Amino acid sequence: MHSSWWLTFLILVPFAGALAVALVRKVEGRAYIVAIATSAVEFVLSLVVACLYNDHIAKAQTFDFATRHVLAAPFGLAYDVSIDGISLLMVVLTALTVLLALFGARDRRQEPAFVAWMLLLTCFTMGSFLSHDLLEFFVFFELTLVPCYFIIFQWGGRERAKAALKFFIYTFTGSAFLFVGILYLGFMHQHQNPSSVLTFSYSALSGTAMSQGTAVWLFIAFAIAFAVKAPIWPLHTWSPITYAEAPTAGSIELSALLAKLGTYGLLRFAVGLFPLALVSMRPVFLTLAVIGILYGSMLACTTPDLKRFIAYSSLAQMGFITLGVMSGSTIATVGAVLLMFNHGVITIGFFLIIGFIEKRRGSILIKDFQGLQGPAPIMAALFTVVMLASIGLPGLSGFVSEYLILIGTFATHTWWAVVATTGVLASALYLLWAYQRVFHGRAEGANAEIADATTSEKWVLVPVVVLIIVLGVFPKPVLDRITPSVQQLITHVAPAGLNK
Amino acid sequence: MKLVIPSIHYLAILPVLIFFGATLALVLASALARGKVPLVVATSTVIAAAAASIAVNFWQWRCVAKAGASVTIAHAIVLDDFSVVASGVIALSVIMTALVAHDWAIRERVSGVEFHILALASSAGALLMTQANDLIVIFLGLEILSIGLYVLAAFDRHRTTSLEAALKYFLLGGFASAIFIYGAALVYGATGSTNLTTISYFLGSNVLLHPGLLYAGGALLLVGFAFKIAAVPFHLWSPDVYEGAPTPVTGLMASIVKVGAFAALIRVLISALGTQLDTWRPILWILIVLTTVVGASLAVVQRNVKRMLAYSSINHAGFILLGVWAGTIRGTAATLFYVITYAPIVVATFAIVTLIGGVGDEHHSIERYQGLARRQPWLGGAMAVLLLSQLGVPLTTGFYAKFAVLASVIDAGAGALALIALISAAIAAFFYLRWAMALYSDDGLEDARIVVPRPTAVVIGFGVVVTLVFGIWPGPLVTLAQHATVLFTP
Q: Is B354 inside a domain boundary?
């Protein structure tokens, strides 16, 4: 066991950073430097944790760095953190996202409030991924709404008020179901063990005995909250407007990171805690996933602006992740976890580039652009790499994860996998078409004057491209960390749930 | 025939006596003093009385810890930890309101001490309600509480809305009282007593062959309470009264009436009619669903923040009722916890509304809040925190309050009820957030800088600190609420 202090630091560092930002807010530009430094420290910390975790998995324990302190006994509120391979990847993604998002938001460096909210958001997201206690998870999960809300509302586009409100209300309503589900589960556990105090510890609750009917209801309650967050069709309707109206850094946080809270929660809590529900719920959610893939691809073709475009393509990608998570196959689940990370990196790339274009042109409407690759070849090249990774070109990161998901699902749920595969083709269609419309052709007027990527913009995108290529060619170190944890989860779930 | 004076345990009624004593002192002072009694004197008297009452609460707490709960004055008054904590909350709200009202009175050039006299008298009624162990005493408390508030609502006599509010409050409140006393009479007819302990004992040891009278009486009592806490469909007075009454009065109304009425409601439903749990639960179920959902939904369409807060407080009343519905120790503790945390927040919120209202207490449209947090980050930030707390965001007491009542309801086996209530909270999020949005929006009134007098600043600061500190570290308050209920529920 490693010291849990590492994880506590992961939560505390961004919080301390936010406080520091508040203290130095009066000095011009200082806040931005503090924020960058904080997120750099956070990223290094997450890498240290990732390295430490490595020599641990040989001992075949899944959860590491664990600690538990009860805070308010009558409420069953506890501080309980630990990680396994799945959350580890999310932790690294969280740290990476905030670092890149802050780098990408250099034009907001005069606004201490903005960077403070970003750091707080990191703190809360980190807390959610590290939580090993359902109530603690819920608290962090809800808290992420507050910074997001303020980021969207204060720095968003023209319809930001509507977007922020829609985002908050949707997620808050979804959480209502989760909250009732968590409380219900906690009390069910307490009633089964009359001597025990109220607890929401993941390890304690995962042993709760329940009938199949109860399991299904609880699964649905949990899944609604996570489906809103992810988003999974048909609960996605908040996401296009929110992604489009949020400032670039906000869109990055939302789609690269917070969406993963949904799929992560679905895997860890909904699937992990209610194996009995899977028999009946699996086909339902696989179908929703497939619909999401097709629907997202279809709308991505027709949408007029670039951010909505990414929102719909994300919906399709979330469909793939859901497919893997619900498939019940280890391979597909590993692929899904990997895709959570890869999709995060790819979306960071997309939104950064779109942000750069938006800054130059003040528009994100596809019809306003033409032939950008003439005046801005480097930007076009970077976009191409990210786009090809998203399509799933072999040798780039997207391929590995989609491939794993599809072969895994094919083994357990053939027909869903078959239909989902058309989604891969569709992604090539809508992405290439969008690329054509924006970058090909003759640049005229404002499009011809557009400046290519500056040095700092190139450097922000370097880590994205490197990760896309490295994880496409050599994903083994990551897979080695995910697989045992997923294996454990699937074994816990499988006997009751797998209907093959 | 010899008249027997029942024995009186003076410590038990000392807080009420202090409040009445202070009231009388102020009345006498204003009658005897040459010229007018200065405002500072009146405010200090109120604060001193409330502080003394809180000190007595500590003493009572130790006494209860040593000797257990006790009844006095012919079993009509009870002294237990529940009443002690509830009284403490009321006294605290009175102190906060007095500070806000002080600045308000200076701004509005209200001279004279009538405001303070009435506030003290009303609060004494609320204190009495927390300790009442007899339907008649509850009625007394209710009337003392209400009559003061009727007049307070009309205090701003230059504004017709204030008069209208008072008249409406008076008429409907009068109805409610009449209904309540009728219910008490019917319960007396069914059980032979108005004493809660005796009723409970009677119902526990006898089977009523014809319970109709009891049911009718209980239902009427419930209606009386529902009026006071503004539960839907008995809420119609509340938005108008909240809007029309002077803002500090609204704050007082929202805090002490809730504490007093819920304390008494719990005693009636759980102490006296605990055996009839299965009868009143379904009624309460419907009442809660209506109250939470209608309260939240109607708040969404309001443009006047005081009306909005009225509907918000209706929604909160629904949540507090959840704890009563549970009918368990956990539920009672949750109810108490909810009112403990809600009272300071709501008074502080109305303190800010008082400030923004400006001279004449008239500017209560949500537009007045536009850009407040940009012009005055501390004031606007405090408002945002208070709103988020009412919304129930984690790390504020509002979250734990909702958590506590929902936990008690789910523990008692009503997941659906909890879900409906929570969804109403999501609806409520809409208007809390719209308000918070106004605070942070750009297009504000540039010149309108609000001056925050120190006493009001203290109140606002106190509310914010309480909600944040106990939001991060709810342990002590939870323990307090739980302790307070251990000696209470049968």
A: yes
For residues B309 and B347, give the distance between their C-alpha atoms in angstroms, rounded to a whole number: 11
Nearest CA in chain B to A185: B410
Residue B183 one-letter amino acid:
G
Q: Which residues from chain B sit within 8 angstroms of residue A139, using beta carbons?
A: 394-395, 399
Inter-residue contact A151 to A254 (CB < 8 Å): no
DSSP state of B2: P
Question: Cis omega (within 30 of 0) on the bond before B490?
Answer: no
Max intra-chain CA distance, chain A = 76
Q: Is some CB atom of chain A closer than 8 A to the CB atom of B482? A: yes
DSSP H or E segment with residue B455: helix B454-472
Closest Cα in chain B to A177: B419
* Residue B147 resides in a domain: yes
Residue ranges making up the domain that contains B265: 10-486
Task: Please choose, from the candidates A218, A213, A229, A132, the residue with its C-alpha nearest in 3D space to the C-alpha of residue A180.
Answer: A218
Domain count, chain B: 1
Tell me whether residues B393 and A139 touch, CB distance under 8 A: no
pLDDT digit string, tens, across residues B85-123: 999 999 999 999 999 999 888 888 877 788 899 999 999
Q: How confident is the model at residue B461 (pLDDT cuts 50, 70, 90)?
A: very high
Shortest CA distance from B411: residue in chain A: A187
Interchain proximity B473–A71, CB inside 8 Å:
yes
Q: Is A183 on the interface with B (CB under 8 A)?
A: yes
Which residues of chain A fall below pLDDT 70? 1-2, 54-62, 495-500
Tell me the pLDDT tens digit for each residue of B205-248.
888 888 888 899 999 999 999 998 888 888 888 998 988 888 88
Task: Tell if the CB–CB gap between B393 and A143 is shorter than 8 Å.
Answer: yes
Confirm if B194 and B136 have CB atoms less than 8 A apart. Answer: yes
Residue B238 CA, distance from chain mean position = 13
A176 → closest Cβ in B400, B422, B475: B422
Please give the single-letter amino acid code of residue B472. I
What b-and-e string marks burial along A139-178, b requiring 16 or more CB atoms within 10 Å of the CB? bbbbbbbbbbbbbbbbbbeeebbebbbbbbbbbbbbbbbb
User: How far away is chain A from the Cα of B459, in angstroms, using its nearest Cα?
Assistant: 24
B438 to chain A, any CB pair closer than 8 A? The answer is: no
Residue B310 exposed, middle or buried by CB count within 10 Å (0-12, 13-18, 19+): buried
Number of H helices and number of E strands within chain B? Answer: 20, 2
User: Which residues 69-128 of A are in CB contact (within 8 Å) with B?
Assistant: 71-75, 77
Q: At a CB cut-off of 8 Å and minimum separation 6, what does A356 contact?
A: A379, A453, A457
Q: Which residue has the tokens 């989860």?
A: A489
Which of A145, A172, A199 is most worth mutating to test chain B (most B CB atoms within 10 A of its CB)? A172
Which residue on chain A is closest to B417 by alpha carbon? Answer: A180
Taking an 8 Å cut-off on Cβ atoms, the answer to whether A74 and B395 are in contact is no
Q: How many CB atoms lie within 10 A of CB A280?
A: 15
Whether residue B427 is contained in a domain is answered as yes
- Give helix A476-497 / helix A330-361 axis angle, nearest 10°: 130
Please give the radius of gyration of chain A, using alpha carbons only, rounded to the nearest integer. Answer: 22
Could B437 and A165 be called an inter-chain contact, meaning their C-beta atoms sit closer than 8 Å? yes
- State pLDDT tens for residues A328-337: 888 888 999 9
What's chain A's length in residues? Answer: 500
Give the whole-angstrom CA distance, residue B211 versus residue B199: 13
> Are the C-beta atoms of B216 and B256 separated by less than 8 Å?
no
Whether residues A142 and B411 touch (CB distance < 8 A) is answered with no
Residue B387 within any structural domain of the chain: yes
Is residue B157 over pLDDT 80? no
> For residue B261, what are the CA distances in angstroms to A333, B265, B358?
55, 6, 31
How far apart CA A242 and CA A310 sit, in angstroms, is 12
